[in-house]
Amino acid sequence: MAVNLSVEEMNGAGLQFGHKKSKVHPKMKSFLLGVRNTIFVIDLNKTKEKFAAALEYMRGLAAEDKVVIFVGTKTQFKKMIKETAVACGMPYVSERWMGGTFTNFKIIKKRVDHYKELERKTEAGEFEKYTKKEQAVIQKEIKVLEKKFEGIKMMERIPDAMFVVDMEKDKLAIKEARQNGVKVIGIADVNINPDLADYPIIANDDAVTSVKYILEKAKEAITEGKQASAASASANASKEN
Question: pTM, whole model, 2 decimals?
């Protein structure tokens, strides 16, 4: 079953409010209804169509046990991105996107493995034999690595797709995704070229209510896909027995 979308709900969440007249990308004009109080208004019927396609794509990925990385480094969305990704069992980047995360994945993976090893040794008490000063240095390193890698520490390979909240702010992430064959699902506000995403969601990318609504629907789609995957695996196991 597809995730249910309601134009009325999207309207209530403020997905329709774009930027001022001076900030509109030429390729967004076909998605607009007009201008209200100097603000461009998005046609939510067209948003619904694009949004539904993006959700169905994410549901399909999850059903095939594929990976979607969530990217959102705007201050007001960091916590939201982390919570959504964790709830979906997916990796995330809520701090600065590190150049090379995809293009130099092997190097990044070595740094992540080092971070995980430091964590393991800390939990095992292997650093207790060190002096307090040495332990302080190690803990400081762990904190630095945690900020950089916490969201991707369980990522064993380059993801299949990337969900981006702000395609302008995180354009480096999108560039790396495209270079590495990673499909992009992104919120496209009126100032954004929707073609940057394989699956653009035409909506307000500034309002907390708008982004929260979109992330909730993304979580529903991925959860539904994972449930379908689990049900299929269970059915297959029953047949074998």
Answer: 0.91
